[in-house]
Amino acid sequence: EVDFNAEDGTKVSVTPSNVKPGLIYGLGRSDSPAGPFVVEEDGWVQAGADGNLPQALTAPKSGGAGGFFRVIVRAGGAL
Q1: pLDDT per position in the chain (79 positions), as tens?
Q2: I need a labelling partner for 36 at 20 to 30 A (CA). Which of 19, 58, 59, 74 fits?
Q3: 29-38, long-range: CB within 8 Å, 24+ apart, which pairs?
Q4: Which residues contact 31 (CB under 8 A, 6 or more apart)?
Q5: pTM for the whole thing?
Protein backbone atom coordinates (compact mmCIF):
# COMPACT_ATOMS: atom_id res chain seq x y z
CA GLU A 1 0.00 0.00 0.00
CA VAL A 2 1.45 3.37 -1.07
CA ASP A 3 0.30 6.84 -0.02
CA PHE A 4 1.85 9.74 -1.95
CA ASN A 5 0.06 12.36 0.16
CA ALA A 6 1.09 11.16 3.60
CA GLU A 7 0.60 13.73 6.35
CA ASP A 8 0.93 17.18 4.79
CA GLY A 9 1.94 16.07 1.28
CA THR A 10 5.69 16.27 1.90
CA LYS A 11 6.20 12.54 2.47
CA VAL A 12 5.53 9.20 0.80
CA SER A 13 4.22 6.37 2.97
CA VAL A 14 4.48 2.64 2.19
CA THR A 15 3.05 -0.32 4.12
CA PRO A 16 4.68 -3.58 2.95
CA SER A 17 2.49 -6.68 3.15
CA ASN A 18 5.13 -9.44 3.18
CA VAL A 19 7.14 -8.46 6.27
CA LYS A 20 9.43 -11.00 7.98
CA PRO A 21 9.66 -11.03 11.81
CA GLY A 22 12.69 -9.25 13.30
CA LEU A 23 13.97 -7.67 10.08
CA ILE A 24 14.43 -3.90 9.85
CA TYR A 25 12.72 -1.99 7.02
CA GLY A 26 13.19 1.49 5.61
CA LEU A 27 11.91 3.47 2.64
CA GLY A 28 14.86 4.73 0.63
CA ARG A 29 14.62 7.77 -1.66
CA SER A 30 16.74 8.79 -4.64
CA ASP A 31 16.64 11.37 -7.43
CA SER A 32 17.67 8.61 -9.88
CA PRO A 33 16.13 5.18 -10.50
CA ALA A 34 19.67 3.76 -10.23
CA GLY A 35 20.16 5.15 -6.71
CA PRO A 36 21.76 5.50 -4.31
CA PHE A 37 18.66 5.12 -2.13
CA VAL A 38 18.96 6.84 1.26
CA VAL A 39 16.79 6.05 4.30
CA GLU A 40 16.31 8.87 6.82
CA GLU A 41 18.07 8.14 10.13
CA ASP A 42 14.73 7.82 11.96
CA GLY A 43 13.09 6.02 9.02
CA TRP A 44 14.04 2.48 10.04
CA VAL A 45 11.27 0.29 11.51
CA GLN A 46 11.75 -3.20 12.98
CA ALA A 47 9.12 -5.86 12.31
CA GLY A 48 7.60 -7.48 15.36
CA ALA A 49 7.60 -11.19 16.14
CA ASP A 50 4.13 -11.36 14.59
CA GLY A 51 5.51 -10.25 11.19
CA ASN A 52 3.90 -6.80 11.26
CA LEU A 53 5.41 -3.33 11.21
CA PRO A 54 4.27 -1.07 14.06
CA GLN A 55 4.07 1.88 11.61
CA ALA A 56 4.23 2.66 7.90
CA LEU A 57 7.57 3.39 6.25
CA THR A 58 7.96 7.03 5.23
CA ALA A 59 10.41 9.09 3.18
CA PRO A 60 10.41 12.76 2.20
CA LYS A 61 9.39 13.80 -1.29
CA SER A 62 11.98 15.78 -3.20
CA GLY A 63 11.24 19.32 -4.28
CA GLY A 64 8.42 19.23 -6.80
CA ALA A 65 9.01 16.21 -9.04
CA GLY A 66 8.86 13.45 -6.42
CA GLY A 67 11.75 11.04 -6.83
CA PHE A 68 12.22 7.30 -6.77
CA PHE A 69 11.54 5.07 -3.78
CA ARG A 70 12.61 1.57 -2.74
CA VAL A 71 11.87 -0.56 0.32
CA ILE A 72 15.20 -1.55 1.87
CA VAL A 73 15.57 -4.47 4.29
CA ARG A 74 18.43 -5.23 6.64
CA ALA A 75 19.08 -7.88 9.27
CA GLY A 76 17.60 -7.40 12.73
CA GLY A 77 19.59 -5.99 15.61
CA ALA A 78 19.89 -2.60 17.21
CA LEU A 79 18.15 0.28 15.46
Answers
A1: 666 665 567 788 899 988 999 999 999 999 889 989 999 989 999 999 999 999 999 998 876 556 899 999 999 776 6
A2: 19
A3: 29/59, 29/60, 29/62, 29/67, 29/68, 29/69, 30/67, 30/68, 30/69, 30/70, 31/62, 31/67, 31/68, 32/68, 33/68, 35/70, 37/68, 37/69, 37/70, 37/72
A4: 62, 67, 68
A5: 0.83
Q: Side chain identity at 31, as an amino acid letter?
A: D
Buried-state track 7-46, b at ≥16 Cβ within 10 A, e below 16: eeeebbbbebeebeeebbbbbbbbeeeeeebebeeebebb
